[in-house]
Amino acid sequence: MPHPIMFSDDDPYLAEVRAIALALPDAVEAVAHGRPTFRCGKMFGNYGGSVKGGVRHEQSLLFIPDPVERAALIGDRRFYVPAYFGPAGWLGILLDDDTDWTEVTELLDASYRQVAPKRSVAKLDEAG
């Protein structure tokens, strides 16, 4: 039985995330478990998530933080440890009208660089 769709294509925050994620070389979007995911070989972003115990954050982005920055991000109330993904090191950032999209771009860039093939990362570096 397929998972129910848990997002709306007219969500403006999803549109921003899509534009950032799909601008990365060789990135694609695929729906998995009812949510949009962004991949380059492996997944580097997931739109929407929840906290263990059931608190859902429909307008959030799950990503793999740079290991050096992870501890600092956890201390910021905008970030959370998502269910299922958290034990693998992922974090979520809540998205709202005050979201710093430059920061989201940097977070997705760092996540992408950790999973993308070397040739894709090289394309990103060549693009500047």
Automatic annotation (TrEMBL):
GO molecular function: DNA binding
Coiled coil: none
Assigned keywords, A-Z: DNA-binding
Gene3D superfamilies: 3.90.1150.30
InterPro entries referenced in this protein's UniProt entry, alphabetically: YjbR-like_sf, YjbR/MT2646/Rv2570-like
Name this protein carries in UniProt: MmcQ/YjbR family DNA-binding protein
Source organism (scientific name): Gordonia pseudamarae
